[in-house]
Design goal:
The complex is a heterodimer of chains A (265) and B (392).
Chain A lengths: L2 H11 L4 E7 L5 H13 L4 E5 L10 H12 L4 H14 L4 E5 L1 H7 L1 H11 L3 E4 L8 H9 L3 E3 L1 E2 L5 H10 L4 E4 L15 H9 L6 E4 L5 H10 L2 E4 L1 H9 L3 H17 L4
Parallel strand pairs in A: 1-2, 1-9, 2-3, 3-4, 4-5, 6-7, 7-8, 8-9
Helix pairs in contact in A: 2-4, 2-12, 5-6, 6-7, 10-12, 11-12
Chain B lengths: L10 E2 L2 E2 L8 H15 L2 H15 L5 E3 L1 H7 L2 E6 L9 H15 L3 E6 L3 H12 L3 E7 H6 L1 H9 L3 E5 L6 H14 L4 E3 L10 H24 L5 E5 L4 H7 L8 E9 L10 H4 L1 E5 L2 E5 L24 H9 L3 E6 H15 L5 H12 L9 E6 L7 H7 L1
Parallel strand pairs in B: 4-14, 5-6, 5-8, 6-7, 9-10, 9-14, 10-13
Antiparallel strand pairs in B: 1-2, 3-4, 11-12
Helix pairs in contact in B: 2-4, 4-5, 4-9, 5-7, 9-10, 13-14
Classes of the chains: A alpha/beta (265), B alpha/beta (392).
């Protein structure tokens, strides 16, 4: 059992769901990302997801697109994000996952990327535009270097592809809540329970739900039907809207505490 | 259709594939199946050929451009895709895909457009079959292609302006794909070029091969043999693939012309085959313009339809295998050719097609006098007249 699965097992024993929080690295700066991620962990997140910004993120809505754009304009590079991850790893012990699109991994070199991530102590990687059917090379190098390969399953994924996705997955299954892009929404989709049940049918791996999860109420509802909830855009909105550095960390801390409190069954 | 260059499903050598968020994979499976079924169905071909002939006005002429031939000291034929309904080759593909969307029961179309020709061709088939049509277009392209925007609106389509990036084709494509992800259950994404995830590169090529098939037949009738060389511009690469593909097994030279923009050395161009590298853009692996971290670099071309940092995966494969040759010409050369063809032949070409003409004009004297070349005149230049006037 890897550290990600251990985290889900521990939470389960404690009677609560897992809170996964996504933050785009380099927005507003890599130095601040280190502090933000430390704050997120201290406020009660169980797993942190560090995003490598990408110029053309197909799965992302306006919030993460804008954060990625700001991070790239601030000069964020892949190596810069790895340095940032190194510092985060020194400060926090919970699982650290990197999320990005596949082209940055491809250009860095899949093997080199897995080696670097492994050396830093990164626990898993999500590539949001890499379906399992294109992931043979990535899965092999990730497995070799003990990086959990995390794949997405959507409500639109045909059942035979769900089975294939969970076979390739080694951390948790990232259940996409609804068709469409990332971004805060007012409502959870009505058929979410059915979508999660469809995945549960074919795997014992933990299932965390993301895309459009933005409030404590939604986290609570998701934790009733899945093993964890993933929140990204809502946190990024707080980071972006904070008037300055001084205000940012307390606001992030307060928001994440509220989400964490909602994970209890 | 199993093809010579397609080695396994959706792959052209190391290029192609399906690199998209999982949400779209079900829709791609469905599209692959529907396309293969339709392509094997004689009734589908009958229906498509009916619309090509009676609605689009095909076959388009193959015209011996005598004064241009004199200038270039060779035999230059123009494949007149500018005379296709809506003024470009784009309608060949949108007619095919709209029939497919109907077979799949998808009532809504989304498309990206650069020059607006694909947007107009999509809006046209949307009107023809009474389907809701949404076209994503970058704000910079809306500025330089006003006429086409008006045409799309007149045809009943809604234009969604895209502000992100540089406001050109790449950004419009991102947004069209995001719309498709959100509305995938009732929407068909009508991609306009031989790019994107499988089956688009294969499917769009197959719909555009009507160009090359007609050229074969017309050459046989008009000159009694195959041409020696085919020349076409390459943005995403659909007009060139459509011309080249039926000749892929023949002893015919294939030349694709990319946009060199302000010059390859300036970095402001749209020539990924000339100076790009292996990477992933919009769902397929190809040659793309990117930095060392894989971030996509904005392209530049005076021709909105070439202003794209990627290219269809099959072109990357044809370049790598040596079957086709790719060259580039600058904005300035294309603008000169735009004027020259207008004055020599009384045909105002699209700025995209002017790139293919410009290369041939530049190479004047390097061809045999009896050599026969066919240039794909992929579209007409009315849409560019205002922009060119402001640049001259």
């Amino acid at each position: 059992m890897n550290s990600i699965q251990q985290t889900f097992a521990n939470s389960h024993q404690a009677g609560r769901g897992v809170l996964v929080v996504y933050v785009t690295a380099g927005d507003p700066s890599l130095e601040e990302t280190v502090e933000i991620m430390t704050t997120v962990a201290e406020a009660g997140a169980d797993i942190v997801e560090l995003g490598i910004p990408y110029s053309d993120p197909l799965a992302d809505g306006p919030t993460i697109q804008a954060a990625s754009q700001r991070a790239l304009e601030a000069g964020t590079t892949i190596q810069g994000v790895f340095d940032c991850a190194t510092q985060i790893r020194q400060r926090i012990s919970i699982p650290l996952v990197i999320m990005t699109c596949y082209n940055p991994i491809l250009q860095f070199g899949p093997e080199a990327f897995a080696v670097e991530a492994s050396n830093i102590g990164v626990d898993g990687v999500v590539a949001s535009d890499l379906p399992p059917s294109e992931a043979d090379e990535w899965c092999a190098v990730a497995a070799e270097h003990n990086i959990a390969a995390i794949f997405l399953v959507a409500p639109t994924t045909p059942q035979q592809r769900v089975a294939r996705a969970v076979e390739c997955t080694t951390g948790f299954v990232y259940a996409v809540a609804r068709p469409g892009v990332t971004g805060a929404r007012d409502q959870l989709p009505e058929d979410l329970k059915g979508s999660v049940a469809r995945i549960r049918q074919v795997t014992d791996l933990p299932i965390a739900v993301g895309f459009g999860i933005s409030t404590p109420q939604q986290v609570a509802a998701v934790c009733e039907i899945a093993d964890g909830a993933i929140v990204g855009s809502a946190v990024i909105n707080i980071i972006a809207e904070a008037s300055d550095h001084e205000a940012r960390l307390p606001q992030v801390s307060q928001f994440v505490s509220g989400l964490a409190a909602a994970t209890r069954w | 259709m199993t093809t010579a260059t397609e080695q396994r499903s959706g792959r052209f050598g190391r290029y192609g594939g399906q690199y998209v968020p999982e949400t779209l994979m079900g829709a791609l499976d469905e599209l692959v199946e529907a396309y293969e079924e339709a392509w094997a169905d004689p009734e589908f071909h009958e229906e498509l050929e009916y619309y090509w002939r009676h609605y689009a006005g095909r076959p388009t002429p193959l015209y011996l451009a005598e004064r241009l031939s004199d200038l270039c000291e060779t035999q230059v034929y123009l494949k007149r895709e500018d005379l296709n309904h809506t003024g470009a080759h784009k309608l060949n593909n949108t007619l095919g895909q709209v029939l497919l969307a109907r077979r799949m029961g998808k009532p809504r179309l989304v498309a990206e457009t650069g020059a607006g020709q694909h947007g107009v061709a999509t809006a046209t088939v949307g009107a023809l079959f009474g389907m809701e049509t949404v076209v994503y277009m970058g704000v910079e392209d809306i500025r330089r292609q006003r006429l086409n925007c008006f045409r799309m609106e007149l045809l009943g389509a809604r234009i969604e302006p895209v502000e992100s990036g540089k406001g050109t084709l790449k950004d419009a494509t991102n947004e069209a794909i995001r719309d498709w992800m959100t509305n995938v259950e009732n929407t068909h994404y009508l991609m306009g070029s031989v790019c994107g995830p499988h089956p688009y590169p294969t499917m769009v090529r197959d719909f555009q091969t009507v160009i090359g098939k007609e050229v074969r037949e017309q050459c046989r009738e008009q000159i009694g043999r195959l041409p020696d060389m085919l020349v076409a511009c390459v943005g995403g690469g659909s007009n060139s693939m459509g011309l080249f593909y039926p000749f892929i097994e023949d002893d015919v030279k294939l030349v694709g012309v990319e946009g060199a923009g302000h010059g390859l050395h300036t970095g402001e161009h749209s020539a990924p085959l000339a100076v790009g590298s292996f990477g992933i853009l919009h769902g397929s692996a190809s040659q793309i313009m990117q930095d060392e971290d894989g971030q996509i670099i904005n392209a530049h071309s005076v021709a909105a339809g070439l202003d794209y940092p990627g290219v269809g995966p099959e072109h990357a494969y044809l370049q790598e295998s040596g079957r086709a040759t790719y060259v580039s010409v600058t904005d300035e050369q294309a603008l000169d050719a735009f004027e020259q063809l207008s004055q020599l032949e009384g045909i105002i070409p699209a700025l995209e097609a002017a790139h293919a003409l410009a290369w041939v004009i530049e190479q004047a004297g390097n061809f045999g006098e009896d050599e026969v070349m066919v240039i794909n005149l992929s579209g007409r230049g009315d849409k560019d007249a205002a922009e060119v006037k402001s640049l001259l």
